Amino acid sequence: ALEAGIEQMIFVNGRGKGMIEDHFDMAYELEHTMADRSKDRSVLDGTRLKPGDCVFVRQQEPLGLGHAIWCARDIIGDEPFAIFLPDEFMVGAPGCMKQMVSAYDKLGGNIVCALEIPMEDTPSYGVIDPGKRDGPITEVKGLVEKPAAGTAPSNLILPGRYILQPEVMRILETQEAGAGGEIQLTDAMAQMIGKQAFHGMTFDGKRYDCGSKQGYVEANLALALTHPEIGRDIRAMAERLLAES
Ligand code: G1P
After folding, report:
1. Which atom of ligand 1 sits closest to the CA of residue 124?
2. 63-111 residue pLDDT tens
3. Using CB atoms within 10 A of its CB, is residue 83 exposed (0-12), middle (13-18) or buried (19+)?
4. What is the pLDDT of residue 50?
5. Which ligand 1 atom is the nearest neighbour of the CA of 209?
6. Any ligand 1 atom below 6 A from CB of 85
7. Ligand 1 site-directed mutation target among 65, 161, 182, 186, most atoms within 8 Å of CB
8. 38 pLDDT band (50/70/90 cuts)?
9. Cβ neighbourhood burial of 40 (10 Å; 0-12, 13-18, 19+)
10. Which domains does the chain have, with CATH numbers?
């Protein structure tokens, strides 16, 4: 988000997630202990944003992604905003959102990240009904949340990165529950199509769906294997585990 030029971060969380808030605060005791022991404190540099740039909002009940986004309506106000679903982990150079901001600078309106997946996996996701395609950019003609098997309009799904216009908040205000009995962001976005520009952007990079156990392990392993400090050791460890299994 920082790389993409986003200044204010809003975290919408539920109960029991206070540690996330603490992570972005000053770790006073830790910083002092490290300073006393002459330890390298630079490891903490990435965990603090400028004062006022970090806002935390509670979604009291799990009523759906659309409702979670709507909980931040008064903080977002009347500006376009970006959404990151953090169980979807993207690795790219530049990062996914920076690529999307470049597309937004040319196209305006609403931009969603779009990803091709095997057709049989589409019932787990929001799916794009695609129009004209121009390189990585696809016109979005429609959106459907978690289509029943065999009914998806394409295999182009929404992997959890969005740049949206604030009008979506007004739609969410009265959005009824959809798939899974939840208030769906996808349903609210679908109502903006035809009224505002709406495009999908295929991202150049790798995506890990950490909402599944396999995806979570894969993301950790993939990043650890290329890590400058521990990559070699992790590779040796992985090879040993494979040989033993
Ligand atoms: C949510 C969205 C869905 C999107 C998915 C990406 O679903 O509702 O449109 O494709 O995230 O992971 P969830 O994973 O919360 O069921």
Report:
1. 16
2. 999 999 999 999 999 999 999 999 999 999 999 999 999 999 999 999 9
3. buried
4. 85
5. 12
6. yes
7. 65
8. confident
9. exposed
10. 1-58 (no CATH), 78-211 (3.90.550.10)
